[in-house]
Amino acid sequence: MVSLEHYVALSGILFALGVYAVLARRNAILVLMGIELMLNAVSLNFAAFASYLDPERVTGAVFAVFVITVAAAEVGLALAIVIRLFRLRATSNVDEAAELKW
Amino acid sequence: MGAEHAWLLAAIPAGAFVVLALFGRYLARGGDWLGIAAIGTSFALFFVVLADFLGTGSGLGPFAASIDWTRIGDFSFPMGIYVDPITIVMLAVITTVALMVNVFSVGYMKGEPRYWWFFAVLQLFAASMILLVLADNLLLLYISWELVGLCSFLLIGFYWEKRSAVEAAKKAFVTTRIGDVGLLIGIILLWREAGTFNIQEILHLAEEGHFSHTYLLVAMLFIFVGAMGKSAQVPFHVWLPDAMEGPTPVSALIHAATMVVAGVYLVNRMLPAFEVVDETLLVITIVGLVTALLTGFMAFAQTDIKKVLAYSTVGQLGFMFVAAGAGAPEASMFHLMTHAFFKALLFLAAGSVIIGTHHHQDMGELGGLWKKMPITGTTFLVGSLALAGVPPLAGFWSKDEILVVLDKQWGPWAVSLLGFAAVLTAFYTTRLFIRTFLGQPRDAHIAEHTAETPPVMTGPLVFLAVLSIVSGLVVFHEVGTALGFPGGFGEFVFLPTHGPHAYEFDAAFAGGSVVLAVLGIFTASWFYWGGRLDRSTRLAQWQPRLYDMLVNKFYFDELYQAAIDYGVLGFSYVVSWFDRYVVNDTGVDGSAQLTGYTGYILKHLQSGRLPHYAMSLALGVVALAVAGLVMRG
Amino acid sequence: MITDVLWWIFAVGIVGAAAGVVFSRSVIHSAIFLIVALAGVGAMYLFLQIEFLALVQFLIYGGAVTVLILLALMLTRTAAGTPRGVSLTGPQWPFALLVGSGLAAVLVGAAVATAWPGDRGEPALLPIGRVGERLFTDFGAAFIVVTAVLLVALVGAIIIARQEGSE
Asked: What are the CA-CA distances from residue B27 to residues B32, B114, B123 (Å)?
């Protein structure tokens, strides 16, 4: 029987992978992909909670809807920024965009 | 008009001070007449107060009056006056001597700069001193104590163009200050336990056993330290000889008759409390004895006539303390009174000599002045005999009384020591007289220009000489009652616990005193009379180290200077090192540098690099998660 | 029974795809792997019997987001193509690995160890009607705010990505 724990563990692993991508990858777009992974893991988690724990008031599913929406908006915006940065710098390497510093 | 108006005796000279200070320089003759009028009025008023005091039905009942001076919450500080026999004696001395000094100063200070200021400060001093003896509480007493110290400072440094005068004034003030701190501590200690500053209340509390023995002992010792400072007892004696830098009338008034006896007054005033912790009495006696002996020796080697008199004063103050330590205020105050008269006389006479010889005061330059200054010489002789203790002059009676009570309280050892001091007194007094007035003049030029001083100066000398002769006789019961007192001196001034003490003639002691005086006089004459100076010089050569010790006043000053140089300055080096290296370099500069360095390290957090920031985020979350787990588990 | 096996296949698939996203040495490959992973998540929603969410997932992620990402990748390529020599993994990957594995351990451990209250043991069918109801009644205000967010994001993206000189 696939139980709640399976879903939560799965989303946990996805989330951890996303964290690694955000921390260790150089290309800005790869970082964004990592963020997407994290957000999806979270949505999956909420949806699992809604289904297993609280089907009367499907709070988790509603939350997942919101997460997906905001994630979409955010990725659009972030990519716009990356493109802009690329035009200025001719690079999308996060290590090299280090202006805001001492 | 009665005893309750005694405060006027202080207020009138105080008012004169204000007028003189503000307008003195514009007044005719510098306002000296105003000063004399003020102090003269006080002198006259004293007799009114005295008559009222003696006339009140209770006879010797003390008089007290006070007003609430200030209130702080539940505490009120009443200020008032308290008049009892001790006060009366002090007032007599102060007003008389102050009047004589004021008159004398008209002649002595003639032509001096700031003439009007001199009289102004003399009035302030008189006012403060009178206030001191009238004060019914320790706070008021302390205030006037400081005021007289201030006047002393101002007057010693009157010739402030002279460096030595300035130094002497500073030395006097600082030395007495050390004593004053002790006095203040003592006052505070007493107030803490008693809850009041009022002297009589404190004395009653002490007698009832309100204070624990150790507490009262410590408090009274501190008070005695204050008395020691002001009255120049060893080891605080160093300021008095230097105070001779001031004009001679000042020496007569302040450093012989009045201010320096404030310590004696204080001890006598608080004697009932000292009696409760009678270990203090032994301390007082020993201090007095040591002082009398040491200064007696020091007076030997001095050649400046004022310095001899200064050491003599310190020694005689020692005599007064010895009497107080024997629990006999009648003897102590009696000697205070007689000494005030003849010592003031001697100082004023010395002043007369100084003016007469046109400012020479070293015995090495004088001699044979008798012919040229007969009145001064005669009065000086009277004063000297009184000081030496020759009957029937005043000094004999008071000194004799001291020896008697000393024997009664402490026994033969104390009497022998003080007796020896008395011999020394007679010795150096005779030496002083002989070398100044008798024999051949040492400097012909000076001798030729010497002349007797005008009556405005010799008048007070004669008056004081008369007092030096007769004032001793008040010790007799008959004389006392004839004057309106309940009896002789001992029946007027006494400790309540001891009761009045009528004078009993003790032939042994009287005879002994005469022998001591004669011994001293004779020995000195043998050394110094008739130009047999070579005997004294041979003596000096025989024991050069001893002689040096005496001339250098037992090196007290050098010791104190070394203590200051090494002790105080050395300590200040340590403190300044601490301030420079610890407080400044480490603390102030150090914290600034630390801040800067920390900033330098921390700024690397702002690398501007995204991965770094993300990493910080992640680490923060991890830390939170771990903390959460730990707290829950 | 069958569902469980299928579930496991899909689960492994998702993890593998995600690993591909994260560890791949080519950006394009990562993008492709991402599409696979997101589709897998959509399938998971189906397993949970929330059809609505699966629909939304496929539509938005599979459609819009992937396209966006690929487009951005095209636009930000360097002139000489993606040089194979430059590593895509930054210098702090050991720490990241540490953090990631630690996180995974904690989360999985928590998932397994916790006794979830009200656990039904099996997924329930969540009809779209119920979701919609909740969305528009209790979360109505949030819904409207989110629409505003979308609008702002849209406008903002346009402004940021605009070409210079085309005022």
From this structure: 9, 12, 16
